[in-house]
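W.,

You were right to be curious about this one. When I first looked at the sequence I had no strong expectations either way, so I just let the prediction run and decided to look at it fresh. Below is the sequence, 113 residues in total, followed by the output.
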Amino acid sequence: MKMFFNLILAILIFLAVSSGVTKVMLMQQEVEFFGQYGFTNPILIVFGTIQLFGGALLAIPKTRVIGAAIIAITFLISAVILVMASNVPMAIVTLVCIVLLGFIIKQSVNKVL
């Protein structure tokens, strides 16, 4: 179970950080996609920074729950936008990630108690 937890944790940290980096760097695909839904470049940079910050917090055991919650919120926003863009398969993948973040939160809270 610990190996599964660590694998899921590593994947989610990677996804959060890589997603944040693409937004902070204003990658053309991100700018075009999110721009259609009102995200200006400064807003996209802030959104990406929040994802990077959440990924960093997720990597630290004492701040893992807060980091997971931050990432879950940003992923939920992304999932809503993906549904609005009719990209349901990617929205489902994003929602699966949110469920896995919930698993990380639950396991992390149980370790504290």
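Here's what jumped out at me. Residues 46 and 86 are 25 Å apart (CA to CA). And, maybe more interesting for your project: Helices lie at 2-24, 28-35, 41-59, 64-84, 88-112.

Coffee later to discuss?

I.
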